[in-house]
Inverse folding.
């Protein structure tokens, strides 16, 4: 990946205007740096909350559910799954400043009915009961300091959710430091940040109650290659002085951890992206979409006249096949809130669609690629069953309209010369989408699950893909499988990261 | 067969065969757009040596100088399947060729499959005036796949990138079903095959060879499939793909994970301000498609609980690049639980299937078939230095010929574990040192074989000419095998010997040793009474030892072995006693005695002459006297100086005339003479005559004796049986003797009792 120093030439991330560096010293005195996540120190009784010195209790996940069939091959977000499923070797302890030992204990208990993972037992056996007692004696936890962010740094896009408190009392307002106020104003009063940051205003969740606070949840995205500029802004404006915890998930949480620390003086709390994804989905589904349903499906997806987007009540969410289409694709089988596994993944995802479109059509944005695709005709590019057999291939029950060979017509020079860029964009979209649908269907069959939720930013403004997924799943499963979609398609990881910050189970 | 003829002389690369009455269900099966496969069935006329007993009621057989039986050469017609593939551009020439050779046409229908069946339908109908019967592609493919898996040893192989050779051939599995066939043509079809007639399309994908070709052509402006593969083999996909390390930074290392995994195919190409090389894009595309197919195949294999997955289609067709990426992908997604298998004759499956379908009235499936090494082209080299141009040339004409065997072949019921049985002792594809030795050995022996072939047909005017052609053919095969040891599956001493026999037959030298065997049988028969008398004079213990020594000494008389043929050549009266003395260290080393009598012994005999008559028969007689029934199994057809079934019948008859024990045993069917179904100096216990297998089962054989170097050393040395077995041979090859830690004429005597 091409990165020219911390500043991307194309990015001009505008910083909040009023955030001045003068406040730095004052704030620094009040705050305590979060210790490096790589040191495993025995817990001290008085250090179990975020506003004291923070402890890093070991966090271990048991293999959940059945074993995954394939290690996810080639998807950006399969790594955490390896240690979750325990296939990559021994279970790994993970350190996260956002966790308390008490929670770790209860979590370990719920996750493994046969006792906690050995590592947890080994490390915590001596002090766990005391920790619990201490925690209960202390009463409710101290409020978590603002600002509340959740960050999901993917291969292509960074997703940021921001909770804007609307119930700030006058007293609070007075105590609130300038920088915090300016961040709030900056994020909530703009819909675009710099040339590439965008707030999806239509997704904003209003009047949400989180940790006893009322407010709105904002959804912001920007390209991952602008991450250095984002970090630089954090440094320029002394984010570190705010003494907040940056809960981040996605591969970028690892990739940029060091940059956050050395450039931005910010300690990232790295979170498991699949944990976050599932937490996020369950939470967002539970709060709905400003009174509307979060989840939806398509009726008559193949018929542009009759096709309807209809709300779906995900009241029985389990088991659920979750297909997250980012740059690559991850497929999870979710059996309960805490019991899920990564089934597989594929490298043919949103990044492939966009990448191929750039090469084939010269387009420069995802929106442009989709717009071209909407005007193209893929049957000029693809070889259909009827192109080979003159009609349906009855011996195998294949309909004539089915694609026999993606880009198959492009083997011929004449046909290559006769197609438009729009046709190529459309064919790319159809190819990638069909393939994801096909793999999802096989996974659903193997896992014996019949509701499939497709999420991820590949589906943003991508009705063609959603309708095709809905149709393909229904057709090939003979009505057994249902494709479901979600309004906040790409933001669940970031929401999950925010929830981890707030320790909302 | 319907009487239409299709002569094959002048056919591309075909061997000179006598034209005979032939039948020709023909099929043209172009698929993948560039190659046409043609299958036809012909009858091939061969000269066969027959032995016939004289009327032995007369007294003249007693005379010393008379041969014990007469030899005649007869014409025999055998069936052969021919499969040819050639480039589509030659289709007209090919059709002309077929038309010119179609006489007395009763065949009104020609079977055709593949896209070309539609494309060339009119052309074929017009040219040949035959109705084109379009066969379903997948049905044909599966029929063909079943056929090759059942009939061609070492048909399937796994591809291992960094090993030498890259091919690992699989031993024939007696139960080929169920399996998954993944055909990667322009798209991908995944078919689950459960029985001969039951199969099901379980899935597929539109991302296949057509996608690689079509998308590759768009991205790289390279038009040819082979050139695209060539580009891909030189590219770096990490320049185009977004890898895990690109997403996770350096952290993948601390997580103990490979950063090289692809997170998003073409993920890095999502930018307008960078150029990507053709090679890199082609490589990325190849990975994307191979991974995707491998993943789908694994998902289907898992859904249907299958671990054998065969890959075929033009995307695979011997291309090392795609075999490598598919293998990698399957290993990755299945964690080694599923093996990617490829087929040597993958390109012919459709044609074979279409042919079988057309020939259903003749039902070729009821026969066993053997690959004819003499006429078939080998697997193409997968070495990277073979560029697309060379590949295209060698792919222009390619042949597979299969001989119909007279009788179906099955496993020996006494094999301990048929799936794991491997006949051959040394894999010469693996063992470079042994390979070098044996290839040289066969090269050096070639002159002698040619000389003997000519000498065996003194009355033939063209014997020398044919022998010379034989020399050329076999020499070329040996040279091919030097370059590409994997060309015909696993290279073994057996395959080298069989190839030589096939080549000899091809040039009408059906039995170069017939006269030698005849003479030696005559000499030995005269000695038989004396040998039996002296044995009977011995006490029990001495007799047991003498019998075994006799078996071993008899085995010294082997014209196939270089060291012995030298001695026999110079001194035809090289005596039986002399042979016993020659045996290295027999005394004191062989202590042996038969335990309680066996119910029934199965004996695989080796050579004609002294071996069978003075070695095996006295041993057989002893067994019979102990109340053990004996099944004596000899080759169906000639190979070197090995005793054939028909010779054994005559020999037994003659011995019965001299010996009441053998006489009554024959009459009471306690001594049974059967054929092995093979014409090889070696022995494959997984391909034996069905009648033999039935008899072994019926009589409850509980002792197996395997005699001779070809049967007990080159093959079956490690064969595990369910009953007691005795493998014995005399090592008549200095190099082999040294390799085994002995000297020339050392003895192999291996008595094995199966573990309880």
């Amino acid at each position: 990946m091409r990165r020219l120093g911390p500043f991307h030439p194309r990015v001009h991330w505008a910083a909040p205007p009023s955030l001045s560096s003068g406040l730095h010293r004052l704030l620094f005195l009040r705050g305590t740096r979060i210790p490096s996540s790589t040191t495993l120190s025995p817990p001290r009784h008085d250090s179990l909350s975020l506003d004291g010195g923070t402890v890093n209790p070991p966090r271990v996940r048991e293999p959940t559910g059945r074993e995954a069939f394939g290690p996810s091959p080639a998807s950006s977000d399969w790594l955490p799954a390896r240690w979750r499923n325990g296939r990559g070797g021994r279970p790994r302890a993970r350190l996260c400043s956002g966790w308390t030992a008490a929670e770790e204990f209860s979590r370990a208990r719920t996750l493994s009915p046969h006792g906690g993972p050995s590592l947890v037992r080994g490390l915590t056996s001596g002090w766990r009961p005391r920790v619990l007692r201490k925690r209960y004696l202390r009463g409710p936890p101290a409020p978590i300091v603002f600002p509340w962010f959740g960050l999901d740094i993917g291969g292509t896009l960074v997703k940021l959710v921001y909770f804007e408190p609307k119930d700030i009392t006058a007293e609070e307002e007075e105590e609130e430091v300038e920088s915090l106020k300016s961040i709030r104003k900056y994020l909530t009063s703009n819909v675009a940040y710099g040339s590439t940051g965008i707030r999806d205003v239509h997704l904003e969740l209003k009047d949400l109650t989180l940790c006893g606070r009322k407010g709105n949840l904002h959804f912001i995205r920007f390209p991952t290659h602008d991450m250095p500029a984002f970090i630089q802004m954090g440094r320029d404006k002394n984010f570190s002085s705010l003494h907040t915890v940056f809960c981040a998930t996605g591969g970028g949480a690892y990739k940029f951890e060091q940059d956050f620390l050395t450039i931005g003086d910010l300690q990232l709390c790295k979170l498991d992206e699949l944990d976050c994804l599932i937490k996020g989905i369950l939470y967002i589904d539970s709060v709905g979409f400003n009174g509307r349903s979060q989840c939806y499906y398509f009726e008559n997806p193949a018929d542009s006249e009759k096709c309807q987007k209809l709300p779906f009540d995900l009241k029985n969410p389990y088991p659920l096949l979750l297909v997250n289409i980012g740059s690559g694709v991850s497929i999870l089988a979710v059996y309960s809130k805490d019991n899920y596994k990564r089934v597989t993944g594929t490298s043919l995802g949103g990044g492939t669609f966009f990448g191929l479109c750039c090469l084939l059509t010269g387009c420069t944005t995802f929106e442009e690629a989709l717009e071209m695709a909407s005007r193209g005709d893929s049957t000029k590019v693809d070889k259909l069953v009827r192109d080979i057999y003159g009609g349906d291939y009855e011996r195998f029950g294949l309909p004539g309209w089915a694609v026999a060979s993606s880009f198959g017509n492009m083997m011929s020079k004449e046909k290559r010369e006769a197609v438009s860029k729009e046709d190529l964009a459309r064919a790319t979209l159809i190819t990638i989408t069909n393939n994801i649908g096909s793999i999802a269907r096989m996974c659903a069959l193997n896992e014996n699950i019949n509701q499939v939720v497709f999420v991820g930013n590949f589906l943003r403004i991508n009705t063609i893909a959603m309708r095709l997924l809905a149709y393909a799943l229904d057709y090939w499963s003979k009505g057994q499988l249902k494709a479901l979609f979600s309004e906040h398609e790409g933001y669940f990881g970031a929401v999950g990261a925010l929830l981890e910050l707030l320790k909302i189970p | 067969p319907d009487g239409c003829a299709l002569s094959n002389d002048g056919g591309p690369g075909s061997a000179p065969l006598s034209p005979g009455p032939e039948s020709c269900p023909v099929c043209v099966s172009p698929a993948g757009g560039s190659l046409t496969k043609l299958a036809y069935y012909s009858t091939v006329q061969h000269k066969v040596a027959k032995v016939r007993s004289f009327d032995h009621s007369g007294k003249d057989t007693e005379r010393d100088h008379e041969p014990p039986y007469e030899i005649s050469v007869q014409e025999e017609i055998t069936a052969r399947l021919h499969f040819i593939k050639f480039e589509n551009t030659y289709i007209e020439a090919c059709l002309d060729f077929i038309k010119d050779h179609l006489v007395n046409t009763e065949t009104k229908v020609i079977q055709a499959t593949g896209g070309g069946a539609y494309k060339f339908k009119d052309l074929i109908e017009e040219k040949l005036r035959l109705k084109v019967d379009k066969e379903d592609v997948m049905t044909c493919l599966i029929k063909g796949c079943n056929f090759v898996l059942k009939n061609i040893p070492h048909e399937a192989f796994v591809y291992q990138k960094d090993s030498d050779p890259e091919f690992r051939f699989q031993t024939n599995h007696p139960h080929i079903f169920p399996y998954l066939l993944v055909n990667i043509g322009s798209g991908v079809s995944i078919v689950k095959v459960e029985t001969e007639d039951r199969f099901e399309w379980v899935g597929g994908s539109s991302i296949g060879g057509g996608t690689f070709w079509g998308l590759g052509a768009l991205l790289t402006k390279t038009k040819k499939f082979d050139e695209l593969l060539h580009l891909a083999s030189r590219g770096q996909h990490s320049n185009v793909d977004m890898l895990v390390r690109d997403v996770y930074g350096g952290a993948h290392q601390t997580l103990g994970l490979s950063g090289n995994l692809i997170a998003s195919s073409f993920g890095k190409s999502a930018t307008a301000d960078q150029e990507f090389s053709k090679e890199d894009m082609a490589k990325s595309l190849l990975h994307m498609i191979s991974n995707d197919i491998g993943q789908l195949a694994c998902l289907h294999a898992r859904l249907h609980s299958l671990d054998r997955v065969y890959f075929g289609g033009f995307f695979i067709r011997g291309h090392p690049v795609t075999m490598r990426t598919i293998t990698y992908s399957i290993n990755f997604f299945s964690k080694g639980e599923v093996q990617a298998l490829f087929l040597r004759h993958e390109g012919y499956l459709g044609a074979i299937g279409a042919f079988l379908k057309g020939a259903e009235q003749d039902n070729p499936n009821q026969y066993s078939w053997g690959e004819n090494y003499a006429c078939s082209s080998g697997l193409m080299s997968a070495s990277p230095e073979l560029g697309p141009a060379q590949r295209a040339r060698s792919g222009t004409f390619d042949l597979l010929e299969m001989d119909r065997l007279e009788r179906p072949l099955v496993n020996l019921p006494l094999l301990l574990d048929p799936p794991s049985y491997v006949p051959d002792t040394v894999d010469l594809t693996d063992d470079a040192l042994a390979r070098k030795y044996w290839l040289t050995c066969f090269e050096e022996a070639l002159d002698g074989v040619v000389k003997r072939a000519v000498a065996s047909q003194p009355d033939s005017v063209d014997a020398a000419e044919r022998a010379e052609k034989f020399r050329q053919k076999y020499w070329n095969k040996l040279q091919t095998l030097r370059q590409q040891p994997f060309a015909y599956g696993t290279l073994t001493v057996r395959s080298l010997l069989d190839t030589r026999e096939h080549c000899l037959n091809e040039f009408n030298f059906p039995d170069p040793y017939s006269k030698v065997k005849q003479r030696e049988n005559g000499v030995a028969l005269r000695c038989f009474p004396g040998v039996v008398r002296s044995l009977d004079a011995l006490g029990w213990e001495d007799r047991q030892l003498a019998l075994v020594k006799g078996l071993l000494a008899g085995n010294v008389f082997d014209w196939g072995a270089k060291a012995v043929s030298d001695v026999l050549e110079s001194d035809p009266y090289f005596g039986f006693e002399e042979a016993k003395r020659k045996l290295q260290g027999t005394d004191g080393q062989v202590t042996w005695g038969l335990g309680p009598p066996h119910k029934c012994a199965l004996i695989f005999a080796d050579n004609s002459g002294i071996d069978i008559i003075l070695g095996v028969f006295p041993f057989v007689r002893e067994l019979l006297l102990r109340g053990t029934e004996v099944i004596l199994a000899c080759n169906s057809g000639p190979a070197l100086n090995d005793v054939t079934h028909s010779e054994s019948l005559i020999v037994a008859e003659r011995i019965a005339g001299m010996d009441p024990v053998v006489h009554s045993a024959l009459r009471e069917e306690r001594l049974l003479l059967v054929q092995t179904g093979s014409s090889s100096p070696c022995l494959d216990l997984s391909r034996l005559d069905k009648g033999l297998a039935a008899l072994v089962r019926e009589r409850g054989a509980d002792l197996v004796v395997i005699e001779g170097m070809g049967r007990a050393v080159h093959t079956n040395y490690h064969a595990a049986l369910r009953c007691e077995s005795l493998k014995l041979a005399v090592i008549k090859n200095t190099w082999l003797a040294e390799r085994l830690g002995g000297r020339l004429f050392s003895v192999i005597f291996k008595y094995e009792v199966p573990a309880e």
Observations:
- The longest strand of chain A covers residues 213-223.
- Chain A touches chain B through 79 residues (CB under 8 Å).
